Amino acid sequence: MGCLLCTSTLFAFSKPAHPKKPSAAAKEWVGTWGTARQLVEPGNMPPAPGLSNNTLRQVVCVSIGGKNLRLKFSNEFGKEPVTIKGVQIAASTGGSTIDASTTKTLQFSGKQDITIDAGTEIVSDPVSFNLKPRMEVAITMFFGETSPTITGHPGSRTTSYLLGGDHTSPEADFTDAVKTDHWYVITGIDVQAPKSAGAVAVFGDSITDGRGSGTNKQDRWPDILAMCLQKNHSTQQIGVLNMGIGGNAVLRGGLGPTGLNRFEHDVLKQSGVRWLIIFEGVNDLGGTRDSTAAFDVAKGLITAYQKMISDAHAQGIKVYGATITPFKNNGYYRPYRDAARNLINDWIRAGGHFDAVIDFDKTLRDPNDIASLLTEAQSGANDHLHPNELGYKMMGESIDLSLFVK
């Protein structure tokens, strides 16, 4: 199945959204990579030797390219300042290695070092860099003192490399680095792009974060969407920002800030966002104790979606709703929870709320048992909630690319 310009799993409605008017400038900042920040849990903290006074190399895969970029760093959940003594970006050549000739040193108000106060975020000065679409880049950071509580993204599905001391030289050898499959402190990359460009923010939980995808393969469903957008001439300037957090809930509980609490930062404050896909709610349903609680949560989720739609529309962002996928045979499953899921999906599909619907439920459900995921598309014998690599490919390729044509 290839990338679609039309699909039977999508419903578009006549209700207009008001697209954000681009600035009159020839270029504007647009997000090409992003990750949702959260307080790193004790089990996901950096391994020895730790971040303080050491060097961390992190690899990310962007969506669109550009000639100038800037990086974002966060100490939002730190209790103490984080000092960065030097940051470099270079093209990754696989694993911990880089193309040294592409290395650029970042600055912050003209200086190479910066201290990020507790509870704050920073953006680097713009730097020229030949960033290609879907390029993997390595961000190498030499830290000073850091906070005992760290802001990061544990579900990176991408390996980072940690060495003791300062190894920011482009020729530094990371062969013996300690490996860890988490991101720390980095939160985004923006590129200067034509005013016709824009980004789609993808707001979700572990299925968007990519649980069940391949480590270092960059094949989460938002990655597949980004690849499809690149293959279509009219959408090649559309960036994709993955704002999924594994274990996240919209209303209460879960990992990271709740969806309602992080929505402004992770969607409305991202650079150049013109479209939004909302695909979240299963973790809210999964903890409900009975039918009454499940249907109360369903109503709460619908109210939350309505607020997100309203807030996004106020910024000229089109909002697409994705139906919640099946989870029969997973520990979350109870018939009453599935009934609540169907209530939510019926509301999403009904029309008049979202600007269009992306029907992931229909894409992934077993036609012989619509409460279950397709066997070949789910990630494990005891999972039945998260898709596997095939399932993510099916999801990404099911999305109608005409949704992102202005």
Furnish the topology, listing elements before pairings.
Elements lengths: L9 E3 L14 E8 L3 E2 L14 E8 L4 E9 L7 E13 L2 E2 L5 E2 L8 E3 L4 E3 L3 E5 L4 E8 L7 E3 L6 E5 L13 E3 L2 E2 L1 E9 L3 E7 L1 H4 L11 H11 L6 E7 L14 H10 L4 E7 L2 H5 L4 H23 L4 E5 L12 H15 L6 E3 L1 H5 E2 L2 E5 L15 H9 L9
Parallel strand pairs: 18-19, 18-20, 20-21, 21-22
Antiparallel strand pairs: 1-22, 2-17, 3-13, 4-12, 4-14, 5-10, 5-11, 5-17, 6-7, 6-8, 6-9, 6-12, 13-16, 14-15, 23-24
Helix pairs in contact: 2-8, 3-5, 5-6
Structural features, described:
- The protein is of the alpha+beta class.
- Helix content is 20%, strand content 31%.
- It is built from eight helices and 24 strands.
- Helix 6 (335-349) links the parallel strand 21 (318-322) and strand 22 (356-358).
- Helix 2 packs across helix 8 (389-397) and helix 3 (259-268) packs parallel to helix 5 (291-313).
- Residues 5-24 have low confidence and may be disordered.
Q: Oligomeric status of the shown chains?
A: single chain
Strand portion: 25-35%
Q: Estimate the mean pLDDT confidence.
A: 94
The radius of gyration is: 21 Å
Sequence stretches where pLDDT stays below 50 over 5 or more residues: 5-24
Distance between the termini: 25 Å
Approximate shape = globular
- Estimate the helix proportion, in percent: 10-25%
Largest sheet at a glance? Answer: 8 strands, antiparallel
The structure class reads: alpha+beta
Counting DSSP H or I runs of 4 or more residues, the number of helices is: 8
The counted number of beta strands is 24
